[in-house]
Amino acid sequence: MKLSKTLPLFFLLYLSMGAKSFAEPLFINFNEMIQQSKYIVIGTYLGGIQNGQITSSKFNFEVEEVLKGDIAMGKTHFNPSSGHISLPFGERCIAFVKEDNGFEWVGHNQSGKSITDNSLLFLEGFYDFNAYLVSPATLSVAQLKEYIKNGSFSGSMYGDLHFFSNTTKKMEPSPIQLEVKYTYTKENILTSDVKLNGISLNDFKKKAIFNLPCWSWDNNTVTIQYEYNLVRPLEIIGKILDIHPSANRFRILFWLDRPEELIYEEFLTFIKDPSLGHAYYELEVSTSAKKTYTIILNEELGRTGRLLDYNERDLEILSLSTGQEREIVFRLGDDESLILSMDSCLISKDELEFAGDELIRELKLGPIQATIYHQAKNADLYVGHCTLSYKSTKFARNPNYK
């Protein structure tokens, strides 16, 4: 599989909205980065100080091990390249330095201060105006050395497939295990063999598409796609937990990303029945006026959902926001809306880490308190308080099933 230079549009938009929002992100493939690096060295960053003065034109570095190029051990200095070097003083890392002595890319050690063959690296470039992406972005030091020597690196990954439990309210391992073997070459080609043990995939493709991390500083995720269509999807994500002593074998926590938010028993039902399509959800709204309504989310592709039987009619969802403004907006008329404004999220980021849909996961962890408003002609009329709860997960029909 040839690795693409094209990143998802939503991802680029997300990056462009961050702190470095002045330009599009830069991107380079791993093989090109290695080719353009005159020196690749392990050492310690010593900051931008020259003759006792702080400088932004020369950056000191203590070279402790040379992986590529002819450079002396000990203290040296590098120049900034596409961006200023933004590293903490004293960070032990791997420097990738271009022909002009520009410190262009860095390998951050994610396994503690000591850098060994078993250390897990995250790769990125320096760029003042946005992110500088490297793909693949995560590998071991042993794999980096293997690539420099042979023009390719290999690895394997293993782990259980986890599902959220409605009983324990946390991710739990299932009897399903994954085993992945892969090789990345200097032609920027990634070949892989993915085995899913403990379940038969029936109508799904037996050959999965495997992707190594590209931008994953927070969670080092790999993706495994069996089917990417919207009507009956099957996609698994895995987080790198640690490295086996063999240095190129990774222990992974895998979870189901699509269909979103299935428990283990629902997943078995989905896999066994090819007539089932994507997952959708039923939520319950209980008002202070002792009335109960049902919200249907994501049943129809391209439509967010609807509120059933509100004053004897269904209301279409115009928008659903779970950001700073947590609200669901329903259409009442041409200039009228019903707004369900949710209270602030009380769930920690860690509890939502492996969620395919954060709102559904939050509701599975507990109900959300909310306030209902009637909006007309830019005026909000208070209707009452309510409680929003998760009710059930269902499956749409697979339109491709015959």
Overview of this structure, please?
By secondary structure, this protein is mainly beta. Helix content is 10%, strand content 51%. The protein is built from five helices and 26 strands. It has an eight-stranded antiparallel barrel with strand order 19-20-21-22-23-24-25-26.
Low-confidence stretches: 4-21
Mean pLDDT reading: 89
Q: Indicate the structural class.
A: mainly beta
Strand neighbour order, sheet with most strands? 19-20-21-22-23-24-25-26
- CATH class category name of the largest domain: Mainly Beta
Number of E-state strands: 26
Cα separation of the termini: 31 Å
Assign the CATH architecture of the largest domain: Beta Barrel
How large is the radius of gyration? 25 Å
Shape: globular
- Total helices: the number is 5
Proportion of residues in extended strands: over 45%
Annotated CATH topology of the largest domain: OB fold (Dihydrolipoamide Acetyltransferase, E2P)
Main sheet properties: 8 strands, antiparallel, barrel
Count of distinct structural domains:
3
Helix content: 10-25%
Structural key phrases:
8-stranded antiparallel beta barrel, 7-stranded mixed sheet, globular, OB fold (Dihydrolipoamide Acetyltransferase, E2P), single chain, mainly beta
Q: What is the topological layout?
A:
Elements: H1 9-16, E1 26-29, H2 30-36, E2 39-47, E3 49-50, E4 53-54, E5 59-68, E6 74-80, E7 92-97, E8 102-109, E9 120-125, E10 132-135, E11 138-140, H3 141-150, E12 152-164, E13 171-185, E14 190-197, E15 209-211, E16 221-227, E17 234-243, E18 249-258, H4 264-272, E19 276-287, E20 292-297, E21 305-310, E22 313-322, E23 326-333, E24 336-342, H5 358-365, E25 368-376, E26 379-397
Parallel strand pairs: 1-10, 6-8, 12-18
Antiparallel strand pairs: 2-5, 2-7, 3-4, 5-6, 7-8, 8-9, 9-11, 12-13, 13-14, 15-16, 16-17, 17-18, 19-20, 19-26, 20-21, 21-22, 22-23, 23-24, 24-25, 25-26
